[in-house]
Amino acid sequence: MSVHLQSTKTLPTVPFGRTGMNITRVGFGSWAVGGDWAVGWGSQDDNASIAAIRHAVSSGINWIDTAAIYGLGHSEEVVAAALHGIPKSERPYVFTKCGLIGDPNNPNAGPRQVGAPESIRREVEASLKRLQVERIDLYQMHWPAEDGTPLEEYWRTLLDLKAAGKVRAVGLSNHNVAQLTAAEALGHVDTLQPPFSAIKRQVGKTELAWCEAHDTGVIVYSPMQAGLLSGAFTAARAASLPTNDWRSRNGEFAGEKLARNLQIAAAIQAVAKRYGVSAASVAVAWTLAWPGVTAAIVGARSPAQVDGWMDAATLELTATDMDEIGAVIDRSGAGYGPAKP
By the 8 A CB rule, do 100 and 140 touch? Predict the structure, then answer.
């Protein structure tokens, strides 16, 4: 049975580095839909997750980012279920990642960062199967390996998978300029996926400029800093997060750090009011205003949450907006990295 997700509108797209793909400026992030695991967002309703993904696609979003580790494979299965029956011509691009290995017998144990070639080859086959696709559009090394595998070895493995047609493009996630340079010497780094938000700004210093100079596409993750900049976050909400939500154990969500972060959230909210959009949309648009950033990954667990940030796909902040938010960043002392482009 075919499922037709008739898009109600066409969103603007931009070239994704040299991959040959043109992508919308926001994509659907599938971290939270993985459910309960070591770095999960607590238990999720799969039906609501599927509805959220389908709503994003029907709203014009043309790519989905997931990873094998999210819910130890469960996120990829949810993505496959959401896309099941959609004709090829209407399907969004699907990006996933390798290199983090969890323990199915102990899902709450922290994942291992593994770069061994045979492990990556096993992982890609498992992801192809779970996603029910013949080729993955973008395959990314999730974190630098900590099992003794040199970067050159795991990057060569990803380049080989691309040459073999298992994947269309290959990228690195959470890697720095020195690592990007070492990989580029072996074969082009198609993409980088770093964390980036008005709180976590480190890549604004060097990595974004490197990627722009090397035609490497950049999709940033956690542009709302896991909800902190969504406009819906308060100190009371932070204090009431369930223990199986990783944010309950994260320093940015408590004490002095939280107070400083909420000052930035308030500045973003003020800009949002002027545009008549959500604070979430402005938080995402802030990342898109930086040179070198192609697009942002934004999570959702319901269709309503998708609607909450959809304006970011077309919203362009001015230099004045960026100066205003930058001044509050400087004044608050929140986060790390440059306050504006």
Answer: no
Question: Bridge-partner residues for 259, per DSSP?
Answer: none
Q: What is the mean pLDDT of residues 141-164?
A: 98
- Does residue 9 sit within a domain? no
How far from the centroid of its chain's Cα atoms is residue 48's Cα? 19
Residues 63-91: tens digit of each pLDDT: 999 999 988 788 999 999 999 999 988 89
* Residue 214 belongs to some domain of the structure: yes
Give 226's DSSP letter: T
Work out the burial of residue 279: count CB atoms within 10 Å of its CB; fewer than 13 is exposed, 13-18 middle, 19 or more buried: buried
Number of domains in the chain: 1
Active site includes 70? yes
Residue 304 lies in a domain: yes
* pTM (predicted TM-score): 0.93
Catalytic residue among 70, 93, 154, 221: 70
Q: Are residues 287 and 195 in contact, defined by beta-carbon separation less than 8 angstroms?
A: no
CATH number of the domain bearing residue 195: 3.20.20.100
CA distance readout (Å), 126 to 97, 193, 239: 11, 22, 38
The residue segments making up the domain with residue 70 are: 23-229+290-315
On whether residue 168 sits in a domain, the answer given is yes
Residue 209 has pLDDT above 90, yes or no: yes
Other CB atoms within 10 A of residue 274 CB: 10
Report DSSP letters for 105-149, one per residue. T-TTSPPEE---HHHHHHHHHHHHHHHT-SSEEEEEE-S---SS-
Alpha-carbon distance of 187 to 183, in angstroms, equals: 7
Q: Does residue 6 register a pLDDT over 80?
A: no
Beta strand residue intervals within the chain, DSSP E: 13-15, 22-24, 26-29, 63-65, 93-98, 100-101, 112-113, 136-141, 167-173, 191-193, 217-220, 295-299
Rounded Cα distance, 28 and 298, in Å:
5
